[in-house]
Design goal:
By secondary structure, this protein is an alpha+beta fold. It has a single domain, classed as Hotdog Thioesterase (Thiol Ester Dehydrase, Chain A), CATH 3.10.129. 19% of the residues lie in helices and 38% in strands.
Length: 149
């Protein structure tokens, strides 16, 4: 994490823990990994290979959405006190602007809005050459844990 700005996270992010949570999930099957946490963003990667391709040899749009929602969901849950709240996806959209045939896709989630009951995250995906391949917006519901104060 960068030290020049105050982090937005409620709890201290731990890359090892975040990636361990992906064990036995779609993220593991697709090769998604969280790679970096900054003071106000989360970054991760997904391979462009047979696990993520559609029949024409391009990264599947649904795979892009899985990467985007994963990054936004992890970030959203780091923003709240997990003893009192958890965050779940409420709506996601994606615009696929460039196909990816090889290498990896790198996504970066940044916060647009944090309210009492919802959050909105912007997730941009880029190819290995740094070209924008997909832009996604994710709305997360902030749900109180019953019985928590």
């Amino acid at each position: 994490m960068q030290n020049d700005q105050q982090p937005i996270w409620f709890s201290t992010p731990n890359l090892e823990h975040m990636n361990a949570m992906c064990k036995n999930t779609a993220c593991e099957a697709m090769g998604i990994q969280i790679t970096e946490v900054g003071h106000d963003f989360i970054r991760g990667t997904m391979p462009a290979d047979q696990r993520t391709f559609q029949p024409f040899g391009l990264v599947h749009g649904g795979a892009n959405v899985v990467l985007a929602e994963t990054l936004g969901s992890v970030a959203a849950n780091l923003l709240v006190d997990n003893s009192k709240f958890y965050c779940v996806g409420q709506e996601v959209n994606a615009n696929h602007v460039r196909g990816v045939r090889s290498g990896k896709v790198t996504g970066t989630a940044t916060l647009w809005h944090a309210g009492k009951s919802s959050q909105v995250w912007n997730i941009e995906l880029h190819d290995d050459q740094g070209k924008l391949t997909c832009i996604s917006r994710l709305t997360m519901a902030v749900v109180p844990i019953p019985g928590s104060k």
